[in-house]
Amino acid sequence: MPSSKFVQCVRQQVAAAIKQHYTELGTWPSTQQLPIVYNEVYNVSFCGIENLHVFDSKKFRKVVAALEEKKLITKRQLVTSNEATEDILLDVHTLQYLQELKTSKMKVAEVTELPMLLMLPMWLLQWRVVKPMKYMVAGTMLAAALAIERGWSINIGGGMHHAYSGGGAGWCMFSDLTLALRKIRKASQGLVSKIMIIDTDVHQGNGYEKDKLTFEDNQLYILDIYNSELWPHDTSAKTAIDNMVELRCGTKDRQYLTSLESALQQASRDFQPELILYNAGTDILEGDPLGRMSVSMEGVIQRDQMVFQHALEWKCPISTVLSGGYAAESHQAVARSIENIMTVFGLTSCD
Fold it and tell me: Which residues contact 95 (CB under 8 A, 6 or more apart)?
């Protein structure tokens, strides 16, 4: 049993019952490990072409390195994910879409927004682009289950919130959040049904929002706070949002944090979740080339602490994914925020 403040969020009996359903996704951690999921395969690299996209596709190892440097973790304490199989992905994604990702270089280039990928052979795209994202999917799904046992978890990757059952966009290939919530419901036989997604990435999370509509999911509550002046402007997907906060370019710390606090208080009145999936994008950072907001690094740290604090007050397990972040300092913001959360909530001990 964990000794952190999040012990009150643990559902030990449910965790014991669901372990057997996650063997394909990775090895369930020992008591000497933290509920932090990572695989070196997450880092996308192919002849330097990945550098043509503004997203730092190798930031995940930078986050791990920063946490190791601060002696908050060792790699042995991390949980390793496997690769999500086609059968796993088919729970959400259409066979047609998955076949396109296998056979169409155009589809892979379209989803990643990298036309230069058309120059590479398909086997290389599968190995260096598609495969890493399958590992991240498994990481998100496994982390969601670990939160039930430990009260909290982090996947150092994932958060592909523009992907949906029939497609993907914006470097988001697979709908990992939808896959995670559907898996935990089935594995727990409905004991974990009421799920809340809190999405603080700067862009609207239109992928899982489309999935909510497609699967007619009335047990999913969505809180989405984003810059309404940016892509994707998905009006139809907005109908799935239960708690929508639309901000504008240039939003600073005070307005952002005040708006988020108000939304979280409203969420507590609206819904009593049994699991929170937290999509913690760092593209709200000042200077982010795609986010266009003006939130400081300290503001990002306060934001994540605020979300964790509310989860603790609700006695609800919380599982975090990294999602977007395009500034050069993005990995530093992630690492510093994880350091703060682990320190403030006493999450540095494994047992």
Answer: none
Whether the bond into 232 is cis, omega within 30 of 0:
yes
Dump pLDDT digits (tens) for 281-313. Answer: 999 999 999 999 999 999 999 999 999 999 999
Compute the distance between CA of residue 28 and CA of residue 24 in angstroms, rounded to an integer: 10
What is the distance between the alpha carbons of residues 306 and 321, in angstroms, rounded to a whole number?
16
> What is the residue whose two structure tokens read 């594995």?
187
Say whether 229 sits in a helix, a strand or coil.
coil
Q: What's the chain's Rg over C-alpha atoms?
A: 18
Work out whether strand 152-155 and strand 318-321 pair parallel, antiparallel, or are unpaired.
Answer: parallel
The DSSP call for residue 128 is I
Q: What is the pLDDT of residues 224-262, one digit of tens each?
A: 999 999 999 999 999 999 999 999 999 999 999 999 999
Bridge partners of 154, per DSSP, are: 36, 320
Tell me which residue of 93, 95, 94, 120 sits closest to 108, measured CA to CA.
Answer: 120
Catalytically annotated residues: 162
